Amino acid sequence: MRLVQFCLKGDEGRVRVGVEQGEGLGVVDLKAFDPSMPTTMKELLELGEKGMECAQRALEASPAQCVVPRVEVRLLSPVLAPEKVVAGFTVANDVSARDWQMKRNGKQWLLGKTFDSFCPLGPALVTTSAVKAGNSVTSRTPTQPYWTRFMTLSPGDVFPTGTPPGVGVFRNPPVFLKRRDVVEGQIDQLGVIRNNVV
């Protein structure tokens, strides 16, 4: 399944959670399908199997009155304000403010990665059952028991697990993002995330 958090264009104040009928296709609004369902991904994940079973039923039934055409949807990050269970996979754009990492903050990396809007996620949370075994995502993802040795995990936690080659600051000469650049990240079976630099 491809779980998404979204709002309707023109109604950005109301967050909803749904299931994509396929990448780039309509979205089944879970609250419209079953009024007992929550409106955020975190709350859906907290329901555990009950939430996943409802999402699967909604996807299989896809009643017309519950399907929102893709052109009317604005996708949000699958998990807003992440806290700490591998429910699935998504694409992350691990943004870094290199000036803060290397010049302004004593070469400490944390602050340069934690500004508001950094680490956008999307386009969907793809459940583990929907990702074929052997995909580079599944073969490189640490197991949940590994992480629980160090921290308490909660629904909605996010674990970015890798960076592709070609990081701009380490190129010769270095390359940095500038206003109006568009950054795309793509992972097979997960989708594409596009971010505009402002």
From TrEMBL:
<dbReference type="GO" id="GO:0044281">
    <property type="term" value="P:small molecule metabolic process"/>
</dbReference>
<keyword id="KW-0479">Metal-binding</keyword>
<protein>
    <recommendedName>
        <fullName>Fumarylacetoacetase-like C-terminal domain-containing protein</fullName>
    </recommendedName>
</protein>
<dbReference type="InterPro" id="IPR011234">
    <property type="entry name" value="Fumarylacetoacetase-like_C"/>
</dbReference>
<dbReference type="InterPro" id="IPR051121">
    <property type="entry name" value="FAH"/>
</dbReference>
<dbReference type="GO" id="GO:0003824">
    <property type="term" value="F:catalytic activity"/>
</dbReference>
<dbReference type="InterPro" id="IPR036663">
    <property type="entry name" value="Fumarylacetoacetase_C_sf"/>
</dbReference>
<comment type="similarity">
    <text>Belongs to the FAH family.</text>
</comment>
<dbReference type="Pfam" id="PF01557">
    <property type="entry name" value="FAA_hydrolase"/>
</dbReference>
<dbReference type="GO" id="GO:0046872">
    <property type="term" value="F:metal ion binding"/>
</dbReference>
<feature type="domain" description="Fumarylacetoacetase-like C-terminal">
    <location>
        <begin position="83"/>
        <end position="138"/>
    </location>
</feature>
<feature type="domain" description="Fumarylacetoacetase-like C-terminal">
    <location>
        <begin position="146"/>
        <end position="198"/>
    </location>
</feature>
